[in-house]
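testing teh design pipeline on a random one, pls ignore if ur not involved
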């Protein structure tokens, strides 16, 4: 599968302490964490569907993906269709995962002038699950180097 997503952790230990009380709401917590990561040299990388480096950032695009990740992983494990929406202005792409037995059809739809080539690819379900769990793991590693205090919170501590 050519489609890939991962987080490059900061090059060193930052130990940023949030100047706020961490939210108990998962989406808000992810936004807070991505805000901290964006203060470092951490990077979010996405490629595939004919484009080697998607124009994504840590503060907004990574946050949007991480907000959707737990539900996407859970759906895939159940063999259900799921999606991850890169809804940020300037990227505006939808990735749909359609399990078909041991395979998953991964389709990219653009809401902009950009056209994915190809627009669908097939991968083993285990490989797609590894891609998504690998993103969670690389996010956790980046968060460990940025703010161990935030990385110790659930669900990140179990990633």
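output:
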């Amino acid at each position: 599968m050519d489609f890939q997503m991962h987080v490059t952790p900061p090059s060193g230990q930052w130990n940023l302490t949030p100047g706020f009380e961490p939210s108990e709401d998962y989406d808000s917590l992810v936004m807070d964490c991505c805000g901290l990561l964006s203060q470092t040299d951490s990077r979010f990388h996405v490629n595939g569907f004919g484009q080697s480096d998607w124009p994504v950032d840590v503060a907004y695009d990574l946050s949007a993906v991480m907000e959707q990740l737990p539900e996407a992983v859970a759906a895939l494990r159940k063999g259900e269709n799921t999606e991850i929406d890169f809804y940020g202005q300037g990227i505006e792409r939808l990735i749909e995962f359609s399990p078909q037995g041991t395979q998953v059809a991964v389709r990219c739809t653009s809401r902009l002038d950009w056209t994915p080539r190809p627009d669908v690819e097939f991968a083993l379900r285990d490989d797609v699950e590894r891609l998504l769990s690998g993103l969670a793991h690389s996010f956790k590693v980046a968060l460990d180097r940025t703010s161990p205090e935030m990385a110790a919170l659930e669900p990140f501590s179990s990633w």
